Alpha-tubulin suppressor-like RCC1 family protein (Mumia flava), 589 residues
Amino acid sequence: MTRPVRHSLVAPAIALTLVGAGVGAAPIASAATPTPPPTVAQATLIAAGNTHTVVVGADGRPYGTGSNGTGQITGTDNPKTTLTPMTGLPSGVHAAAVSAEFEHSLVLGDDGIPYATGRNGHGQLTDEDEENPDPQRTTLTPMVGLPSGVSATAAAAGANYSLVLGDDGVAYGTGYGSNGQITGNAIRTYTLTPMELPPDVRAVAIAASVGSHSLVLGDDGIAYGTGYNGYGQLTGTQTTKTTLTPLTGLPDGVEAIAIDAGQFHSLVLGDDGVAYGTGDNRHGELTGEETELDTLTPLAGLPSGVDAVAISAGNFTSVVLGSDGIAYGTGSSDDGRLTGDGSRDTLTPLAGVPSVTGPIAQISAGSNTTLLLGRNGVVYGTGRNDKGQLTGEPTLEPQRSLKPLSGQPIVRTSSARITGTRKVGRLLTARGGTWLPSGAKVDYRWYRGGKPITSATHRTYRLVRADWKKRIKVRITATLPGSSDATTSAPTARVRLVLKNTKRPKIRGKKKVGKRLKATKGRWNATPTRVAYRWYRGKKKIRGAKGGKRVYRVRKADAGKKLRVRVTAKAPYTTAARATSKKVKIRRR
């Protein structure tokens, strides 16, 4: 129920989503400032459990949120409402895979050792002292039982039991086994014990359920199952199987390449790009109208031309990742785990994935939540949040849309830009600069010619005279505890000034025919670098009195008329402006 993409939880899955590692690095704190808790430095792996969630960051650390009553996300704080680092991995060891189920979690270290934390009442975490086993653990602790020289390559947590895959091609089980889910008839074991496949078949993937059945994928392309089969989840009609037995129903020539186990149903991904299911279908988790299937049957609903590339089985739900990068779900969504409300009986896109997320990289269906990991490194969740498993204050009201989990680094969804008219006196507005998760503190700083403008720290800025001829830009910074990010706009073109006349031009000289009149340019709010003059007799332009000359010799035709001059002024990065003198009357003689 908790496996990302290929549900054997193998280490290579990390390579899927290494996006911008280090973006969420915490700032250095002064001695007087407490260091904020680390944030997930871009998620790389996800695991949805029963009422808790485990995420691996690009820093290789596992983080947990949600119910912690048995130490399933380490420590004793219960619940945890934001992604919080899990403890116990040795120094220098990074998480290569994670699995979460019921009341315990498994973390596969890149040292080849499986580590476990949480409830251990049935030996699901293993214990060397079978007579007096620890009932629970609150820190990641190595599991015992793998043969000397064998390293773990995958781990899967089930309901009170665990599976581990060794690099020797053997699947090992520990914990509760009364229904044959770890093969055999032992009620419980406290050490990793081999689960036998047919001779010459090596196990390449494992899947444990929140019910009591297990799946193992062989290198022969066959999915094998053991445990409870009351709904046909292992195919066939035998109620219980205590040995790994092939699941039936794949078309001739189709091999299984991935597996996953829900509570009462199983999913198998074929190399033909089709997701197949068997078992309980009362909620539509296998699509179609049949309430129960006992043979592998194709799930319906993917668009034409879209292949299934990953599968994840939840509690009464199935989630399939399409080759188009879209996550599709079917089954019960009464608590919003498939987004929205109600049940569905065909694969339907999960709604509300932000466009910035891009194609979905991983999927994980839990008991009552669904997690998606975007290629931008952000984890989104939907469904129940009564224990903080989706982060935030626990609430009985289900979350019916995909939202980022808190405790992740800020991821920018749009860059800063400036809108408005670049003229002195006009208002500029900072646009863009949006981030996920929401709730970040956002600060603005405006710059003139590369230098910060005093007191210009709001989303809008009104241009002043000092901005004339300068370029303006804005820097927007978003901050969450332990994480910050900033975006700076491109600088504007140089700010322009509306050129205005502050004192009208005048006409000086004797107002007589044959005399020279001289025009002043008047006064302006900026010094003009170019001035042109146009003389008028009444309302008409005087022919021959053009060319921008400020001196005009009065003509006979002007006698008894009124003259005026219009001045056009220009300056760099201004709008051209005009001003007209008062009229003067020319004497008749």
